[in-house]
Each structure stands twice: as C-alpha cells, then as structure tokens.
Amino acid sequence: MIRSMTGYARAEQQETWGRLAWELRSVNHRYLDLQIKLPEEFRSLENELRALASGYATRGKIEVGLRYSSESAQVKAVEVDAKQLHAVKSALELVAKELGSSSSPDPMRVLGWPGVVKTQDAATTAPVAEALALFKVALQDFADTRGREGQRMAAYIGDRLAQLAALVAQVRSRAPLVRDAWLERLRARCRDLGVDVDPARLAQEVALAAQRLDVDEEMSRLASHVKEVQDTLIRDEAIGRRLDFLMQELNREANTLSSKSQDAEMTRCGVEMKVLIEQMREQVQNIE
Predict the structure, then answer these.
(1) Using one digit for the tens of pLDDT, what is the confidence trace for 154-200?
(2) Dihedral of CA 98/103/106/109: which sign?
(3) Distance of CA 82 to CAs 78, 110, 114, 180, Å?
(4) Which domains does the chain have, with CATH numbers?
(5) pLDDT tens, 103-155?
(6) Phi, psi values for residue 198, rounded to 5°
(7) What are phi and psi of 108, to 5 degrees?
C-alpha cells in the first residue's frame, strides 16, 4: 500500500500513577531517520522502540517523543501508626500529670510527630510496560495516517496519469495530419515558385521531414511509462524512489516531443504533459 512520508499521531493515557503522552511526527527524507526523545526512566525502551518503528516505515525523518508526568498521580490516604500514636499519647498524659496541666494536645502537632503518620506516594517505578503498550497504539495510528494520506496521493496521481494518457493518444492521432500538412505546404510552395520537383527528390525530403517530425517512439515510451507508474502504485512496498525515476523518464519524453513539434496543437499537448508530470513529481517527493 502506498504511504506518505508525512504523518502525525498522538496517544495519551491517564492512570493513578500519572500521565503518559506519545507524539509522533514525520517529514520527507531520503532514508529512515528515527529520532527518539525519552525521559531518563524510559531509556531502556529505546532499542525496542526503534525496532517497532522500523517495521512500519522505511523512509522519512520521524520524531518520537514521550512525556511522563507523575505530579498528577493520586496520593494514598495517610496511614497512622497506632502503636506510635499510643506511645505519644502516653507520654503526653505523663507530662500533663507531672506539670498539672489540663490542656489537650493539638492533634495537628501530634500528627506531625515523627513516626506517628506515614504517607506513601503511588508507585514510584516508571510505568515502562504501559508506555510500550501505548507506543504501539500511537504507532498504529501513525501508520494508518500515513496510509490514508498515501491513498489520497495515489488517487491524485492516477487522475493525472489518465489525463497524460489522453494527451498521448491525442498526439498520436494528430501526428499523421501534421506530416500530411507539411507535405502539402511543401508542394504548394513549389507550385507558387513554378518549380518542377523531381519526384525522387521530393520523396527524399518527405522522408527526412517525417523522421524529424516523427514522435511515435516518444509516445510509445510515454504510454509504457504511464502503465509502469500505474502498476507501481499498487505495489505493497516502498515505491517512492521508483516513482521518482519514472517521473524523470516521463519528463524526458515530454521534452523531446516539445523539441520536435512543428505544430501549435502538439506543442500545447507537450506543455500540458510537462505540467501534469510536474504535479505528479511534487506528490511523489512525499511518497515512502
């Protein structure tokens, strides 16, 4: 399936231990350039992330980033150490008795006494397994996005190929008319000049002109390249480089047509061909 080299995906997960957020984005590149930015706690994942991403992409500059926030993690309820609390209470009662004091101790100050209460944060171990699972979700979404964009480009290129094929057919049907018109102009000029032309000489000139004006070979190659591009678009592999080469071949034949043309309509067709080929080439630059 044809895939674009540009794409974007984001996946988030919020749990009691905090929040994870993956972000993937890519742009054109001749080769696969994978850049991964991870918090220190997740460095152990890098090799596995590279292997997974390489299975989904063969070209493009891909930036992968992970954000991890534990600040939003829920804190467990305060746990009171009953034995320590009773020990503090006994000590306070003894002090109050010795001092003859009848005041009650401040509960908040009691809770602040070392060992009376313990607070435990949610698990401090980084959620590595959860991050890896979430990355696979983001990666699949990223691949789907590139695939959908690739299908749109394939449809765009297919439309231009159909127009190009129609122009090839138009040039082929007009070429004999152009040769006949040239021959008629030559005969009319000879008549106007009152010159008797040797039939053998005339035949020789006609043959030379036909050779100069003949674009059938170029049109045959253009038609062949159009078919090759159509076949390439349905390949289930990376096709960007092959399409780029085929665009160069198409452009070469269109240029040859323009240089040989001695007819305004055929020249117009050549210009239209080059416009269509350039439009396709711009899209091909973004295909994996």
Answers:
(1) 999 999 999 999 999 999 888 777 776 666 666 677 666 666 666 76
(2) negative
(3) 12, 12, 13, 111
(4) 7-72+128-146 (3.30.230), 79-118 (no CATH), 148-284 (1.20.140)
(5) 777 777 777 767 777 655 444 578 999 999 999 999 999 999 999 999 999 99
(6) -65, 125
(7) -65, -35
Q: What is the largest CA-CA distance in the chain?
A: 148
SS percent in the chain: helix, strand, coil, step 5: 60, 15, 25
Residue type, 213: L
Do β-strands 117-118 and 60-69 pair in parallel, antiparallel, or remain unpaired? unpaired
Q: Give the tokens for residue 221.
A: 């190659």
In angstroms, the CA 90 to CA 83 distance is 11
What's the whole-model pTM score? 0.70
Query: Which residues contact residue 185 at a Cβ distance below 8 angstroms, ignoring those fewer than 6 apart?
Result: none
Mean of pLDDT values over 233-255: 94
| Cα–Cα dist 34/156, whole Å | 28
Q: At what angle do helices 128-193 and 46-54 cross, to 10 degrees?
A: 30
Cα distance between residue 181 and residue 191, in whole Å: 15
Torsion of CA 250, 251, 253, 257, to 10 degrees: 130
Q: CA 116, CA 81: separation in Å to the nearest integer?
A: 5
